[in-house]
Amino acid sequence: MFASPIESGIAPSGTLLGLLQRGRGDGWLHALAAPRPAAVAALEHCVLHDPRRDWRLEHRSLYYARLYRELNAGLDAIADHLFHPDDLRTDGDDGADGSDGTARTAREAAPRAYDEERTGLALSVLGHLASYGDRHALDLLRRYAVTGANWRWALDELAVRDDDAGLRALGPRVLVRFPATERGERALTAAVRDSFEPRPWRIWAEDPARPEQRARLGRALTDGDFDRWQRQMRPPGPQPGWSVEAVLAWAQEGYEQIPRQWREASAARCLGAVVGPGDRATLLAAAADGPPAGRAAALRHLAERGDPDVFALLEAAAAARDADVSRAAVTAFSRMSDRGALVQARRWAARPDELGSCAAAMLARRGEARDAPGVLAALRRAVRTHGTDARELRPLVEGAGRLDVTAAVPVMRHIYRETASSQLRGHAARALAATDPSFASGFAVECLWDCEEDTRELAARFATTVDVRVVERLRRLATDPAEQAGVQTAVRGRLADRAVG
Asked: Rounded to the nearest 10 degrees, how much is the dihedral formed by the CA atoms of 139, 142, 146, 151?
């Protein structure tokens, strides 16, 4: 699901597949105009091979679900993907291995054959289709919740789509995953405690027809609440009375653990509570050449308090060979909010390294009109050096819109067309709405079909209604039960303004 920055698997933006992978509105429109077999094949490829760089930040499921309905595409390919042998059950945390020690040992010895993101997008698409009344999609979700490896995701989709009777019938079949052993009970408690959507568990815990199930889930709910309370009452970490040296040592202790615990932020907050007037020399020494985690915590503490010597320390740390220290220095500088940091950002914005990118981003977020040339130069440099998916582009694009940098319109159009990130494309669209006079009759029209909710809302406010496709699309969005409230508010306001006009 996380596309490689080198081999992303994203097709060129001028192809139907490339447009659909990006979630662009033009992809939707091209799919409807293309031969149906080709459109369905491209759509299925996207759903079965999630093109998003980060599924937690980008949305595609509603976009693809709507296109499934529009193309009247079948769900056989999704079913084959969900129930493929690659979707192997693993030992994991659910304790569902029962008493078959031989089978459990064999699975533990074998490499893990799936991760939950392999099927996440397909399950989310089925969830939206179920909300549109597609019984086949609902049946697939129910079946996968019982037999599939990524059953928690399917159960979360059902929690907000299925009725009480449908969920109640799944209870005994899902609970088979948790054998009546000590390990199985612990796994059940963890599953109930950590569930994203608690509705199914509560329905099963209140099922009057299954008293044993009620008793078992009642214990799991109680134990889960107790576990959560214990964690809240006994937080790990520094205690009152710790010294600066103890906090720095605690940060370094986490850094040296396996797996590593990066306690930079927590340690910096603790330092804020324990540092006294005589501790500055200790902090300066740690920030200059201390061990990695202690150095990072000291840098962050000094930066947040605007220490007069912090800029030299940050510059030295940003050039350190240790990547963790270098990254921590850049992060510490990015969190500074005083006037001195902005002045320093103007000096560093032209640097070709991470510290320069951070400085340019600070100018983009907080700079004045005189900083527009520096933001534009950094934007062009980022695209030229790292391409249209560079992580430093978002603040620069936002800054170009905020500072009304009209000279940035060509490069922002290029980013809009080429980036594989639907989130970055949305930021480019907002910046173009502020700087590009042709936006309303150009990109704003296709944005009405975009995969991102915020981008559709922007389009609803800006797209010209001279285009007949716009009015029809606005009417469909206004009555679509799956559309987000913010989009529908903008759409209905626009339609009302048009009626009055």
From this structure: 120
DSSP 482: T
| Cβ atoms of 213 and 202 closer than 8 Å | no
Q: What's the pLDDT tens digit per position in 261-299?
A: 888 888 898 888 888 888 999 999 999 999 999 999 999
Three-state SS at 198 = coil
Task: Give the C-alpha separation, 9 to 5, whole Å.
Answer: 9
What CA–CA distance (Å, rounded) separates 189 from 178? 10
Distance, CA of 317 to CA of 355 (rounded, Å): 10
Q: Which two tokens stand for residue 363?
A: 């100018």
CA–CA separation, 352 vs 381, rounded Å?
Answer: 9
C-alpha pair distances (Å), 87 with each of 80, 106, 151, 261, 310: 10, 16, 11, 31, 51
Dihedrals phi, psi of 208, to nearest 5 degrees: -70, -20
- Contact present, 126 and 141 (Cβ < 8 Å): yes
> Contact 286/295 with Cβ under 8 angstroms?
yes
Q: Are 173 and 141 in contact (CB under 8 A)?
A: no
Closest CA to 78 of 62, 64, 90: 64
pLDDT digits (tens, 9 = 90+) for 407-442: 999 999 999 999 999 999 999 999 999 999 999 999
Q: What are phi and psi of 198, to 5 degrees?
A: -80, -5
Q: How far apart are CA 232 and CA 175, in angstroms?
A: 28
Determine the Cα–Cα distance for residues 85 and 101; give it in Å rounded to an integer.
21
Would you say 363 and 374 are in contact if contact means Cβ atoms under 8 Å apart?
A: yes
Task: Write out the DSSP string of 404-466.
Answer: T-GGGHHHHHHHHHH-S-HHHHHHHHHHHHHH-TTTTTTHHHHHTT-SSHHHHHHHHHHS-TT
**Distance from C-alpha of 60 to C-alpha of 62, rounded to nearest angstrom:** 6
Predicted TM-score (pTM) above 0.90: no
Query: What is the average pLDDT across 361-370?
Result: 96
* Per-residue tokens: 115: 């991760």
The Cα–Cα gap between 16 and 27 comes to: 6
pLDDT in tens, 106-157: 322 333 334 678 899 999 999 999 999 999 999 999 999 999 999 999 999 9
